[in-house]
Amino acid sequence: MTTEPEGNPAESADVRAARAAIEAHLSRTEPGAAGSTGSPASPEGRDGGRRVDDATAERIAREAWDAVSDATPPPPDPGTDPAPARGAREPEEVTELRRRAIAVARGLHQLGYHLDETLLPGPDMAAG
Question: Are the beta carbons of 14 and 106 closer than 8 angstroms?
């Protein structure tokens, strides 16, 4: 799976999020990529550029979900807080990271990458 130019107006927001996550991942992991201006990856690969396989796509999705886990505060300790606040809401940062992780996972799936089912959002939010 290789890179291709982005900017197709018919692409979903999820696909655009996935392409951005792929580009960010590649810019962090490719040697000499600090100033890279390459295009995001996709399985269609029309330009013969950088390659992204299913394992790399899984790492990218897992990174997005790990960011959610890292930002999620621990649950209240029943020993020190016997009555958790009713209607307590998830911090906005965590909500935004969760939205991004869902979009990245869905976008990678739409692009044709095969992801472990625990990384795909579903009715029970296995990944979240």
Answer: yes
Q: What's the CA gap between 89 and 66, in Å, rounded?
A: 20
Angle at the Cα of 64 from the Cα atoms of 58 and 66, rounded to 5 degrees? 95
- What pLDDT shows up at residue 52? 87
pLDDT value of residue 121 = 83
- Cα–Cα distance between 91 and 80 in angstroms, integer? 21
In-domain check, residue 124 = no
- State the residue range of the domain holding 62: 2-74+90-119
Give the model's pLDDT for residue 69: 92
Residue 84 lies in a domain: no
DSSP E strand stretches across the chain: 2-3, 41-42
Give the pLDDT means over successive 10-residue stretches in the chain (128 positions). Answer: 55 94 89 49 44 91 94 80 69 93 95 90 56
Establish if 48 belongs to a structural domain.
yes
Look at the chain and report how many structural domains it folds into: 1
Which residues 6+ apart lie within 8 Å of 93 measured at CB? 71
Has residue 44 been placed in a domain? yes
